[in-house]
């Protein structure tokens, strides 16, 4: 039989009695069995059962992978995770002791054996197990039903199956990699380690202060601009294949600022003669100027032959003072400690692939304490077949250098709005515009609180017409301890806004443009921006990049 020998802080698989039953299982869904699947292999002894897969047992699979040993004498499951060539961890799970089943008199014949039926519910999933006691061993393809008998078929919710296709008795020799010592850990840490090993994490910023001050402490490798309201870091990125899914994660806490603020995570393209980095280092006058006839000069907002604007990866909005102002007590309100933001940025993977890139975070604020943020990128491998995207940055009117004098995006007070011309050197198939838009002007008549139609034209033809609006802001009240409260029972953070709420991500719109021919094109964005009142004015932060095959 299979035995587990343990030494302090180490665990190891050993085989004392190699005579076992090997059961091979295949998976299916809705009556269909996929070809070339990684079949489950179970080696069942009299007292113990080893659960693995064909590829893992023969080491033809990829890291990470797991095997488990069920010891019925101790009624426990020993888990082994192979994270890479060097790291093996182990833990113990007592879930076997907590399993309960509804037993039935119903029987079926599977592979020549009479099987009985048992049923249980796991996480709202109904699981049927068909097991036999006509063999001198017990086991199952998962942790479920290991003590019932030998489970030959499992059916989840009536349509997902794991069924035995072959049973044979054999002499078994464990491969040497399975008997290597494993570092023991607690179950929660074990699950966390194997989960994190399934993807690559690229740290961007950790506990970084974004504030308005000339006296902030300097962090190695982090550049501070615009009095600390912009932080930039140069990141070396690994190879990212076209099938991968890429996510950006950000967490934010108030470090002193009580207000909701516009935030952005952006990438600075540096492949052309000029870049936004020039403006950060030398000042806004180093950026190309855009005019549309309204008498103002807008720095660095559109692409030119020699310049690409920042590519916006994530638009986010801080709430009213999360964590820093959690001392404000309201009955029935348990404030959150931080705001998590998470965005799929897979369409921009080609901008990162095997490159050193400049990634920055902006939070517009005038507070010495400001905000504290952490961010990282995670890369998750997927099935092959996707084509790497072609990305063309077009416009970004968000004044990232607001605290260094960059003009607010008031250019939509002119009917021309913003127009960007671009030239395709070759056709672009399946083109779409990734468009982010939010309206601002924080008084009753400002565009923050007034719905406005966004219209986008490609080569003088309307391709998008929509009023961007959020009516779910009250959902995020527990992130907003310092939100103002009104006499009618509402809080400021409850109010509907022009496509944003305090404490949320603003999701992009994907505007399908079809196949674009080689040559010259132009995109125009028009918004009927509201008129100013006294010293108050409205503006629209919009960003867009062209994506295609």
Automatic annotation (TrEMBL):
Domain Peptide-N-glycosidase F N-terminal: residue ranges: 201-379
Fetch the Pfam families from UniProt.
N-glycanase_C, N-glycanase_N, PNGase_F-II_N
Q: Which UniProt keywords apply?
A: Disulfide bond, Glycosidase, Hydrolase
A GO MF label: hydrolase activity, acting on glycosyl bonds
Q: Does the keyword tRNA processing apply?
A: no
Q: What is this protein called?
A: Peptide-N-glycosidase
Organism per entry? Niabella ginsenosidivorans
Organism classification, top ranks? Bacteria, Pseudomonadati, Bacteroidota, Chitinophagia, Chitinophagales
């Amino acid at each position: 039989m299979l035995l587990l020998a343990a030494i302090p802080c180490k665990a190891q698989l050993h085989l004392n009695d190699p005579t076992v039953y090997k059961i091979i299982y295949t998976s299916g869904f809705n009556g269909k069995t996929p070809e070339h699947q990684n079949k489950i292999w179970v080696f069942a002894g009299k007292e113990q059962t080893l659960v693995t897969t064909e590829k893992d047992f023969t080491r033809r699979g990829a890291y990470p992978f797991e095997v488990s040993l069920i010891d019925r004498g101790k009624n426990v499951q020993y888990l082994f995770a192979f994270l890479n060539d060097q790291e093996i961890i182990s833990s113990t799970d007592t879930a076997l002791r907590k399993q309960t089943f509804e037993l039935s008199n119903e029987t079926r014949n599977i592979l020549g054996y009479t099987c009985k039926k048992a049923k249980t519910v796991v996480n709202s999933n109904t699981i049927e197990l068909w097991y036999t006691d006509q063999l001198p061993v017990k086991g199952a393809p998962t942790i479920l039903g290991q003590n019932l008998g030998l489970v030959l078929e499992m059916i989840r919710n009536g349509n997902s199956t794991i069924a035995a296709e072959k049973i044979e008795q054999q002499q078994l020799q464990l491969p040497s990699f399975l008997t290597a010592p494993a570092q023991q850990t607690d179950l929660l840490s074990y699950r966390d380690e194997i989960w994190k090993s399934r993807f690559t994490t690229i740290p961007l910023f950790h506990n970084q202060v974004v504030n308005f001050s000339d006296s902030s402490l300097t962090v190695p490798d982090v550049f501070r601009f615009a009095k600390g309201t912009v932080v930039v870091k140069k990141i070396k990125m690994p190879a990212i294949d076209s099938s991968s899914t890429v996510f950006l994660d950000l967490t934010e806490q108030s470090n002193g600022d009580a207000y909701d603020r516009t935030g952005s995570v952006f990438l600075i393209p540096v492949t052309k003669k000029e870049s936004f980095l020039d403006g950060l280092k030398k000042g806004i006058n180093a950026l190309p100027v855009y005019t549309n006839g309204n008498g103002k000069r807008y720095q660095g907002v559109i692409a030119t032959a020699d310049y690409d604007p920042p590519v916006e990866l994530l638009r986010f909005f801080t709430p009213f003072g999360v964590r820093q102002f959690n001392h404000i007590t309201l009955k029935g309100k348990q404030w959150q400690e931080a705001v998590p933001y998470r965005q799929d940025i897979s369409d921009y993977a080609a901008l990162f692939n095997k490159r050193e890139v400049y990634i920055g975070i902006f939070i517009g604020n005038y507070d010495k304490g400001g905000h504290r943020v952490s961010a990282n990128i995670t890369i998750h491998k997927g099935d092959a077949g996707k084509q790497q995207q072609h990305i063309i940055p077009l416009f970004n009117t968000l004044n990232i250098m607001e605290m260094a004098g960059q003009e607010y995006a008031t250019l939509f007070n002119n009917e021309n709005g913003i127009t960007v011309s671009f030239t395709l050197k070759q056709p672009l198939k399946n083109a779409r515009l990734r468009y982010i838009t939010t309206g601002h002007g924080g008084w009753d008549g400002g565009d923050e609180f007034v719905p406005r139609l966004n219209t986008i034209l490609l080569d003088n033809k309307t391709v998008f017409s929509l009023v961007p609006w959020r009516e779910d802001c009250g959902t995020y009240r527990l992130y907003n301890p310092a939100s103002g409260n009104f006499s009618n029972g509402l809080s400021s953070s409850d109010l509907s806004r022009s496509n944003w709420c305090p404490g949320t991500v603003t999701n992009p719109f994907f505007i399908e443009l079809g196949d674009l021919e080689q040559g010259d094109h132009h995109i125009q964005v028009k918004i009927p921006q509201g008129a100013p009142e006294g010293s108050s004015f409205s503006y629209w932060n919009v960003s867009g990049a062209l994506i295609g095959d």
